[in-house]
Amino acid sequence: MKIYPINQAGWVEHAQHICSPNFDARPDSEVSLIVIHNISLPPNQYGGNGIVELFTNQLDPNEHPYYAEIHTHCVSAHFLIRRDGSLIQFVSCLDRAWHAGVSSWQGRERCNDFSVGIELEGSDFEVFEEVQYQTLHDLIARLYQAYPIQGVAGHSDIAPGRKTDPGPYFDWQRIQIKEAF
To answer: Which of 119, 126, 129, 179 is catalytic?
Structure first.
């Protein structure tokens, strides 16, 4: 899937848009960081609606035992890249999605204030799909074109000891950072 440019409202026009209520206005901070995560709901299962339901506050706590633990969490990300490479956008890049939690990058606290969160449908226990890397690469290129991005980090990098994603199977060598764009 080729990602089209990000419009002035902070949306990738050809992504599927599913609006999350879990965002707010950014403080006076420019987007300067991309944070990569992984997620699967139920854990280690792919293709269902659990992620979308979590990010839209519609997760049924009776559908899976894990959902009973997390259904009240108000979280989101800007983007989700499915196993088939398809792209969903939940929050405008101009707004603050709630993906990083307690976090710090290069001495700056509260990474949600200045980052864009990208979730890859996956887990810490399995490799990601080639098509996911292709979509991720193109999305990162567009983000570098649209915003003064200074770096790309994993959730584990900005919340060490608390988070492990994108996990040991994420191939950082596959991500060509700014110089390639």
So the answer is: 119
pTM for this model (two decimals): 0.96
Instruction: Give me the residues paired with residue 34 across strands.
Output: 116, 152
Domains of the chain, by residue range, sit at 19-180
Q: Which amino acid is at 8?
A: Q
**Cα end-to-end distance, the chain, whole Å:** 18
Q: Looking at residues 112-132, what average pLDDT do you find? A: 97
Question: What is the predicted pLDDT for the residue at 180?
Answer: 43
CA distance 118 to 99: 9
* pLDDT of 88 higher than 70: yes
Residue 164 has pLDDT above 50, yes or no: yes
CA-nearest of 43, 47, 48, 45 to 65 is 43
Q: Which CATH number fits domain 19-180: 2.40.50.140, 3.30.450.20, 3.40.50.2000, 3.40.80.10?
A: 3.40.80.10
Least Cα distance to 99 among 112, 88, 113, 90 occurs for: 112
Is 119 considered catalytic here?
A: yes
